[in-house]
């Protein structure tokens, strides 16, 4: 794995939740276990675009959790031949069905190598 992707992953796992209670939104942000923050060089991420790369980071971290039973990701919703939406991911967490929404609210910082790195992002998990 290249250094920039590794730095972006480190920025992703260091991201604090944007809110912690229901005062801001009725949706809960996902709380990922710190046990899955490490990443080794064998992990492969195909996307270089920051938004899609963050989705891959979230999927990777969720799939490491033994309480997660993965169903699918990036499921397109179509009306005939027209795509009208996409579900980022469907999975079971502790046998409860969940839908993941990775919102495009992110910001980047510049590290000492003058490279853009991920500093923050927002993930929301909705229960069915």
Give a written overview of the molecule.
With 128 residues, this protein is an alpha+beta fold. It has one domain (3-127). It is 20% helix and 41% strand. The chain contains two helices and five strands. The protein has a five-stranded antiparallel beta sheet with strand order 1-5-4-3-2, with helices on one face. A hairpin with a 2-residue loop joins β3 (82-93) and β4. The longest helix has 14 residues, at 50-63. The mean pLDDT is 76.
In a few lines, what is going on in this structure?
This protein is an alpha+beta fold and 128 residues long. It has helices at residues 3-13, 50-63, and strands at residues 28-29, 68-79, 82-93, 96-110, 116-127. The mean pLDDT is 76.
Which characteristics define this entry?
alpha+beta, 128 residues
Order of neighbouring strands in the sheet with most strands: 1-5-4-3-2
Count all strands and give the number.
Answer: 5
How many structural domains can be distinguished in the coordinates? 1
The span between the termini is 36 Å
Label the overall shape: globular
Task: Please trace the helix and strand order, writing H or E for each element.
Answer: HEHEEEE
Describe the sheet with the most strands.
5 strands, antiparallel
β-strand amount: 35-45%
Q: Are there runs of 5+ residues with pLDDT below 50, and where?
A: none
**Helix share, percent:** 10-25%
Which radius of gyration do the C-alpha atoms yield?
15 Å
Number of H- or I-type helical stretches: 2
User: What structural category do the secondary elements indicate?
Assistant: alpha+beta
Q: What's the pLDDT, averaged over the residues?
A: 76
């Amino acid at each position: 794995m290249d250094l920039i992707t590794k730095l972006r992953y480190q920025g992703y796992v260091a991201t604090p939740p944007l809110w912690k209670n229901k005062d801001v939104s009725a949706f809960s942000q996902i709380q990922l276990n710190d046990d899955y923050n490490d990443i080794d060089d064998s992990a492969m991420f195909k996307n270089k675009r920051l938004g899609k790369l963050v989705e891959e980071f979230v999927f990777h971290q969720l799939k490491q959790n033994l309480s997660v039973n993965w169903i699918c990701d990036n499921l397109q919703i179509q009306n005939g031949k027209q795509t009208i939406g996409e579900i980022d991911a469907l999975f079971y967490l502790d046998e409860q069905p969940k839908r993941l929404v990775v919102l495009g609210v992110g910001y980047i910082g510049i590290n000492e190598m003058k490279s853009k790195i991920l500093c923050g992002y927002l993930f929301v998990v909705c229960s069915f």
